[in-house]
Give the backbone structure.
Amino acid sequence: MSTIFTRLKSMAFGLAFVAGVAFAGALGARAQEFKQIELTDQMVANFIAAQKDFAPLASKLVEGGESPDAALTKQLEDIAKKHGFASFAEFEDVGANITVVLDGLDRASGTFTDPVEKMKKELEDIKADDSIPAEDKKLAVDDLTQEIAQSQPLQHKGNIDVVKKHVAEIEALIPEEAGESGPEDGDPPAP
């Protein structure tokens, strides 16, 4: 399973994106298979607004595993449509696109580095790190090389500015322990 997908899935739980990205994970979708779309302010605002309705379904999604029942699937579709999405699949795509931008966004400086470029740098860092045991290094290099080969760079650069406009609202949804992509040392999110 790819690191991007793992990051998307874990961030999804932290952001209450559980309904969007984790459902895709439950169906076995790979992060690279999501549809890159051009985000609008309205899409992101609708996505944020939908979180309070999706949050109560998080445990049901986890319990549903790879085959959520028809009633849960209908709830997911209904909530997505209530918040202006054509379908739950569109909601998932918006969440995945937001997550890709967040993964590359340095909160302290506001600069964006494409997640694929971040993985390439991480790969070079691992290769150069002599403190990593050879067997562990080989596994990490192989895994990361595979992830890079399967990943797509961000196609819609305008998504960066759209997500930046909403980053404070999105960050408010992230619990403190959500992970590495949050602000460092209490720094506020960059605009």
